[in-house]
Design goal:
alpha+beta, 2 helices, 82 residues
Amino acid sequence: MFRDNRAVSGFSSNDIPKSKDFYGGTLGLEVTEENGMLNLHLGGGGTVLIYPKDDHVPATYTALNFMVPDIDAAVDGLASRA
């Protein structure tokens, strides 16, 4: 029934401006904002929706994974932005 429909993944945040800064500034993703929600535009054409939720509880599992060619270099690059 949904095989040919476009789909996006999503998760909540209790601080949309902080999320926008992290995903756009720290991670360097293209981030757009519409109707109080964020769209993360990922390599390969994927999109992730971040929506506001006042009673948000951080996930206890991985919600978003990035495939990088060198994990140590990626960690060092992120640490230098902190």
